[in-house]
Design a protein that fits this description.
24 helices; 749 residues; 20 strands; eight-stranded mixed beta sheet; disordered C terminus; 4 domains; five-stranded antiparallel beta sheet; alpha/beta
Length: 749
């Protein structure tokens, strides 16, 4: 038995967890459906912005070029005397940084006059797009001005400024050039005429003005069209070019550099890439030629010194031979001499090479340190040879030393002379280690904006924004949406949960549109008796049957915390449902401030409750029998200036007691609880009071305050009608999900 109970509890917990999961999904879907128009609104707005961006944005064109950085470019590197002196290979990344340096791009900016900005003035926002459309269709024509705005460019206008010199203090200022007739123009600054000129002629300043030179080579525009002239700082133009210029190595270790640039002007993008490539190649060749020239200058300085050393060594050797006579060297001495000469020559060449490297590098550079190690090794060999020489006879030692000096000087002089001739030949045919593979060509199709992607992203963003705002609204909305919360916190049963009805929504719209009274009652129970909302009121009818078993009278008051909760809907349709069950029903519209049940019933409000309480008419004159709905109805009558005082009149209580004997139930539609005190006055006369609340509209504190006010005035609050529950919610909708709240309390009383 115990095991069965445990198993049942586990199954119950599982079912509850599943219900919670379904509730979460249902609430999400319900929130989305409740805010569907908000989501659609933001989606449409985002779509309109995306379409505007896609079709009004300036098209961006992309041009590309290709260079190759060769590994062994210099012919000098193949010559043994200068091997390694001129072959200085840089990594590809270093080449890229050199290309994007101010040294290279500065020449590009000057060569293409990129620091000069000359452009037509377009109408704000849409002007440029209109001009672009016109120019695509009529390339050789100038568009007529739209909206009589003659100063703006509307398509086909052109301007080209080759020279624009200004004082340094004027850099960055905007001047306005206004086109005239026959190529003439005027230049204004701060709406003041600054200079006049014509196309093809240099415009210079007068003597009392700062330095100003302007040369306009092309001007195609209607008279009166405005153009913007501005000269920006060279560093700003270079920085802009650095940002727009992209250089990447194609593949790893290939040495192939890809250039690309995006610009609104396809012609400018092509010119910038080709100019950059040409400037870099030229400067690369000049750099290699400069390296060769440095080596030539070094050799020209060394050759006279080596030649003088050779002449002195030969003279000393000849004088010694004349003094001592002919002295022949032995084979062993001759071998030592050759080794010493070769080693001395290598040491001298390495030292010359080290001196040249020190012009560009410090002593700690790896190349300089490597040469120092070679010199140290060769000097060690010289010391070994010197020990052998010390063992020779004195005459042999002197002859060997003098002969060594002659041969070393002779070998060194010959080597430098050969190097000098080789470098001269190579310098004459110097080429750089960079070559242009592909020049940039004029792009024909824009790469931006990508219209389809922009529109798709805008729709997606609109949906996301709409959904996010929907959930933010839900999070900020403190309205109670769960009847369980009401029961736990208010200690008042929920008698019925009334689902949302689209048909009732249409009926409400029709009532709002009708200025005249309808020819028939517009009540949901008459229009469609099978609606879920009406079914829930039938359940409420059953609940009220048990609630009235011990009631003091047959009066039911229906009220709500605030206006617009649906108490009139519940009152009218509950009256019809009770009447359909064979009950004799009297419906009273006691909202003497804004009551409109008479309009729902299709009659006038004259001769109603206010006149009845005042005693100006009899009950027979106030009660209207509505055969279409099988109920009797008392409208509000003329709206009195003092509704609360009128309802407090003793005649109202006597009236209810008198006519109550003729009916099974009297249903009174009263004003909201928190707005006025009318509901508390009427509620003391009723044996059952129902408070109608709208799902998700009321904070818990508002409901607590409403219940508290009713109890303070001794109003018997029987239960709550939870109205307008969205059927998208898995807890309340889809069939009979709401009915557990109806029957749960039908049998409690």
């Amino acid at each position: 038995m115990t095991n069965n109970l445990l198993e049942n509890n586990q199954n119950l917990n599982k079912n509850e967890s599943q219900d919670d999961d379904e509730l979460n999904l249902g609430e999400v879907f319900s929130t989305l459906m409740e805010n569907k128009w908000l989501i659609i609104f933001f989606t449409i707005v985002a779509l309109m912005i995306g379409v505007s961006k896609a079709f009004l944005a300036t098209p961006i064109y992309k041009a590309d070029a290709m260079l190759q950085v060769k590994e062994n470019p210099s012919s000098l590197s193949t010559l043994e005397p200068v091997a390694g002196l001129l072959d200085k290979k840089l990594p590809v990344q270093a080449e890229i940084e050199i290309i994007k340096s101010r040294m290279i791009l500065g020449q590009v900016v000057k060569g293409l006059n990129l620091e000069i900005i000359a452009k037509p003035r377009y109408f704000p926002i849409i002007g440029k797009a209109i001009a672009r459309r016109f120019q695509q269709k009529n390339k050789d024509k100038i568009s007529a001005p739209l909206f009589d705005f003659n100063e703006y460019a509307w398509g086909g206008e052109q301007i080209l400024v080759d020279t624009f010199d200004l004082p340094s203090s004027w850099v960055g200022r905007e001047l306005v050039l206004i086109a005239g007739t026959k190529g003439k123009f005027q230049v204004f600054y701060n709406n003041k005429l600054y200079a006049k000129g014509e196309v093809g002629a240099i415009v210079s300043n007068t003597q009392d003005q700062p330095i100003f030179r302007l040369f306009v080579s092309v001007l195609k525009a209607r008279p009166g069209t405005h153009f913007i002239l501005q000269k920006q700082a060279e560093i700003r133009a270079i920085n802009s070019l650095q940002q727009n210029l992209a250089i990447l190595e194609k593949g790893r270790g290939t040495g192939i550099l890809g250039f690309s640039m995006e610009s609104a002007s396809p012609d400018l993008a092509m010119q910038v890439l080709n100019k950059t490539a040409n400037v870099y190649v030229r400067m690369n060749v000049e750099d290699k030629s400069a390296e060769a020239q440095k080596t030539l200058d070094f050799l020209h300085k060394q050759l006279p010194i080596i030649k003088e050393q050779l002449e002195i060594a030969v003279t000393v050797l000849n004088e010694y031979r004349l003094q001592k006579g002919s002295v022949d060297l032995t084979i062993e001495t001759q071998s030592i001499l050759n080794s010493v000469v070769e080693t001395r020559t290598q040491i001298t060449l390495f030292r010359q090479k080290r001196d040249e490297l020190r012009q560009n590098f410090t002593a700690s550079h790896p190349s300089v340190e490597a040469i120092d190690k070679q010199i140290f090794r060769l000097e060690s060999q010289i010391r070994k040879h010197n020990k052998k020489i010390a063992e020779l006879p004195e005459t042999q030692q002197i002859i060997l030393r003098l002969s060594r000096d002659v041969k070393v000087s002779e070998e060194l002089y010959t080597s430098l002379l050969n190097s000098l001739q080789a470098i001269k030949i190579s310098k004459a045919g110097t080429v750089g280690d960079v070559r242009i593979i592909d020049y940039a060509v004029l792009p024909t199709s824009p790469v931006k904006p990508k219209k389809a992607i922009i529109i798709a992203i805008s729709i997606l963003l609109g949906l996301i924004i709409g959904v996010v705002i929907s959930f933010i609204r839900k999070a900020l909305n403190q309205g109670v949406e769960d009847p369980d919360i009401i029961e736990k916190n208010l200690d008042v049963p929920v008698y019925a949960t009334v689902p949302h009805s689209e048909l009732q929504k249409k009926l409400n719209t029709q009532l709002m549109k009708n200025k005249q009274y309808a020819d028939r009652p517009l009540i949901l129970a008459l229009e469609n008796n099978e609606e879920l909302s009406i079914e829930s009121l039938r359940s409420l009818r059953t609940t009220l049957h048990f609630a009235f078993l011990e009631a003091k009278n047959n009066i039911i008051m229906i009220t709500g915390p605030s206006p617009g909760v649906g108490k009139t809907f519940v009152s009218t349709n509950l009256a019809v449902v009770l009447a359909n069950a064979g009950k004799k029903i009297l419906l009273i519209d006691a909202d003497l401030r804004k009551g409109f049940i008479n309009k729902t019933m299709g009659i006038k409000r004259d001769n109603g409750l206010s006149e009845l309480i005042s005693g100006t008419i009899s009950p027979d004159e106030a009660i209207h029998t509505l055969e279409a709905v099988n109920i009797d109805f008392i409208p509000t009558g003329a709206i009195p200036p003092n509704p609360s005082e009128l309802l407090l009149h003793e005649r109202f209580k006597e009236l209810l007691e008198g006519i109550g004997q003729n009916y099974d139930h009297i249903i009174i539609d009263s004003p909201p609880i928190l707005a006025v005190t009318d509901a508390c006055i009427i509620g003391r006369m009723a044996s059952a009071t129902l408070m109608v609340i709208r799902a998700g509209e009321h904070p818990l504190k508002e409901l607590q305050q409403s219940v508290k006010r009713l109890k303070q005035n001794n109003v018997d609050l029987k239960g709550i009608v939870f109205n307008d529950v969205k059927q998208t919610s898995s807890r309340y909708g889809y069939g009979y999900g709401y009915s557990k709240y109806v029957y749960q309390y039908s049998y409690k009383k």
